[in-house]
Amino acid sequence: MAGSHPGTPTAGQESGYAAPHLAVIVPSFNERDNIELLYERLALALDGIPFEMVVVDDDSPDGTAGLTRELAQVYPNIRCIRRYGRRGLSSACVEGMASTAAPYLAVIDADLQHDERILPQMLEEAKAGADLVVGSRFAGHGSAAGGLSRARQRGSALATRLAGLVVGEAVSDPMSGYFLMPRTTFDAVASRLNKDGFKILLDLIATSRRQGRHLAIAEVPYDFRPRHAGESKMSPLIVVQYLGLWLSQLTRGVLPTSFLLFAMVGASGIFVHMAMLALATGPLGLPFVPAQVTATLVAMTSNFFLNNVLTYADRRLHGSRLWLGLLGFYVICSLGGIANISVATMVYDLRHETFVSGLAGALMSSVFNYAVTRVFTWK
Ligand code: GDD
Ligand code: MN
């Protein structure tokens, strides 16, 4: 595509800074050894197209942001958004896209797994009318084998099939982290995107659809490459987060992802409680009441830490705010317990059905705990 825009200065070179036509958003966490090479490859691939590279870095300990700023002194079409105390791939992409005035937006991983050479073709597809262009490992001659281990290929296949239930057959690679769109596509849904999680593309498609916008989607195949330097940030937590997003999409967004994750954590708390109770009354030999109190405290503590890393990964509490948050969480959950018993008693007085009353109480306290901790704990 070199020279396809005659007369426009080449961004990033001595000719000075041209208003970017394409913004390439690069979410990054510990990608220091990839950023410069990525920029060089982008500049080569996008020769003739004024672009800017927007690195959105979550204050990586390896100094990715500092290096990016140094590079930005040499290449004025590099920008760095450095976020403090935040983690999250989706929210990083959203904030990067929101930060630019370019009429076209792309998202690409920092680790060179996505083949940057197809970007000009992706841009052409968008200009030809596509609302969204997905770099796909599974369309045409694309492939995922090069960049994923066997186990991850299986996991990815399952996740892709689950995603298919939400987005239909329109996209062969709904889990892709590589895509491009006119900014109008982003602007139409930006305020409604779910910021906690890894799967921004799936969310973008499903949210657009709920708004009544059926996106014209084009795909450009590519071969997924092995990571250049550093390590993947994929983890069991990310997988559970994905499950939450997926369930939320199945309810057409009626139940927010964070509520579903909060509920999953709550359910895990029941297991923690029962295990602790067994331990306290058994090997530890405590009488029932102190054992029950201990089990309740342990379950609340485990719920708190799980919610902090999973449900609210994007606004995790640290340091002294973490411990204050934990104390507050105990108080809120105790109030939730009172709400639980009051509602259960009320329903029981009306209906005399143990199961229905118990369920009503439990639902009441989950919603109460969720709503109140959202306002006071993870605000
Ligand atoms: N700012 C920020 N914050 N960036 C993050 C975070 C975070 O918490 N977590 C990951 N990233 C950045 C990484 O630095 C990298 O540039 C990109 O997001 C992808 O992360 P990887 O850790 O390399 O993920 P992966 O290779 O296992 O999976 C990626 O590629 C798949 C195929 O396209 C992801 O993009 C998947 O969503 C995608 O399915
Ligand atoms: Mn990667």
Automatic annotation (TrEMBL):
SUPFAM superfamilies documented for this protein: Nucleotide-diphospho-sugar transferases (SSF53448)
Single GO MF annotation: dolichyl-phosphate beta-D-mannosyltransferase activity
Gene Ontology annotations for the cellular component aspect, listed alphabetically: membrane
Gene Ontology terms: biological process: glycolipid biosynthetic process; polysaccharide biosynthetic process
Domain called Glycosyltransferase 2-like: residue spans: 24-183
Presence of keyword Metal-binding: no
InterPro entries registered for this protein in UniProt: DPM1-like, Glyco_trans_2-like, GtrA_DPMS_TM, Nucleotide-diphossugar_trans
Transmembrane segments: 259-279, 291-310, 322-348, 354-372
Residue intervals of the GtrA/DPMS transmembrane domain: 262-378
Keyword Isomerase: no
Compartments in which it is found: Membrane
Entry keyword set: Glycosyltransferase, Membrane, Transferase, Transmembrane, Transmembrane helix
Membrane topology field: Multi-pass membrane protein
One of the Pfam families matching this protein, by short name: GtrA_DPMS_TM
PANTHER family listed in its UniProt record: DOLICHOL-PHOSPHATE MANNOSYLTRANSFERASE SUBUNIT 1
Family: Belongs to the glycosyltransferase 2 family.
Name listed for the protein in its UniProt record: Dolichol monophosphate mannose synthase
Organism from which the protein derives: Devosia geojensis
